[in-house]
């Protein structure tokens, strides 16, 4: 198995739980909900009754679909027993089944879901194309898949820390970046592959892919791109929805809405 199951590492999980101790549920500003409203009114999207969630974590999205969208069934998978226990504890619902599975190797049923979703996990996957093929065959024709992925500009550098600008801006042109302002160290963008990063604990294995790789894989597998957002989330800890000024310098998440072709 290629997958690093860091969420079942006790120390990681303890610290992750503290970090995520904010109120459950996603902020309404996440573009996924705008995508959801948009696709519900399109003629080609089948009525959303059966939902797939990959790497469901604490189950907030599955729970949202069950309670707010009244779907008939949700199959929610995750690699981590810790996360599934948490999901069952805080987001259990009669139509949701939480199941232990590695999305790198999962066998999804053919043409069974009207909507698929995965948040903050596809950047862990090694064999991304094979996963996208599997998602594609599991969707009904016209079904959408929403992905929230760490943005390639965010995943490129191994050391993910803002650094102070040491240069004065050029005297010509319209650059208004001042000396001392924090800048994002974008390097190794074209070097795809593993990134072992220090995030919560040392040695978390993530994967970097360029924007064109993500989009081309979805298109090669038979999806049409229906929506793209490059997003930095509001900071929940600071009084509900505060956008950090620094986040205007680079996107943190890539959010995609893709639709399976209708044959
Ligand atoms: C940052 S959390 C995101 C959880 C949730 N989707 C959310 O948005 O809050 C990443 C999740 O991906 C899961 N995960 C990572 N690799 C996985 C894999 N190969 N198969 C299934 N789940 C995986 C982890 O166990 C964890 O629950």
UniProtKB/TrEMBL annotation:
Pfam families the record matches: Methyltransf_11 (PF08241)
Boundaries of every Methyltransferase type domain copy: 52-146
Transmembrane stretches, start-end: none
Superkingdom classification of source: Eukaryota
GO molecular function: S-adenosylmethionine-dependent methyltransferase activity
InterPro entries membership: Methyltransf_11, SAM-dependent_MTases_sf
Gene3D superfamilies in the record: Vaccinia Virus protein VP39
PANTHER family: TRANS-ACONITATE 2-METHYLTRANSFERASE (PTHR43861:SF1), TRANS-ACONITATE 2-METHYLTRANSFERASE-RELATED (PTHR43861)
Name under which the protein is recorded: Methyltransferase type 11 domain-containing protein
């Amino acid at each position: 198995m290629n997958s690093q199951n860091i969420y079942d590492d006790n120390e990681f999980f303890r610290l992750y739980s503290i970090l995520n101790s904010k109120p459950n549920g996603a902020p309404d500003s996440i573009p996924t909900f705008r995508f959801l409203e948009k696709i519900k009114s399109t003629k080609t999207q089948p009525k959303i009754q059966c939902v797939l969630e990959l790497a469901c974590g604490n189950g907030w999205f599955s729970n949202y679909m069950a309670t707010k969208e009244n779907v008939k069934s949700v199959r929610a998978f995750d690699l981590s027993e810790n996360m599934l226990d948490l999901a069952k504890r805080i987001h259990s619902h009669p139509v949701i089944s939480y199941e232990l599975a590695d999305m790198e190797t999962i066998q999804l049923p053919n043409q069974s879901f009207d909507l698929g979703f995965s948040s903050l996990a596809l950047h862990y996957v090694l064999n991304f194309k094979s996963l996208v093929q599997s998602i594609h065959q599991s969707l009904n024709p016209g079904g959408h898949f929403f992905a929230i992925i760490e943005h390639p500009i965010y995943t490129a550098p191994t050391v993910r820390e803002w650094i102070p600008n040491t240069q004065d801006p050029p005297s010509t042109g319209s650059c208004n970046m001042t000396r001392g302002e924090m800048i994002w160290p974008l390097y190794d963008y074209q070097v795809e592959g593993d990134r072992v990063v220090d995030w919560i604990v040392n040695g978390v294995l993530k994967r970097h892919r360029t924007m064109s790789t993500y989009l081309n894989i979805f298109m090669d597998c038979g999806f049409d791109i229906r929506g793209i957002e490059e997003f930095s989330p509001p900071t929940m800890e600071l009084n509900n929805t505060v956008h950090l000024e620094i986040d205007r310098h680079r996107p943190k998440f890539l959010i995609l809405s893709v639709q399976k072709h209708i044959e």
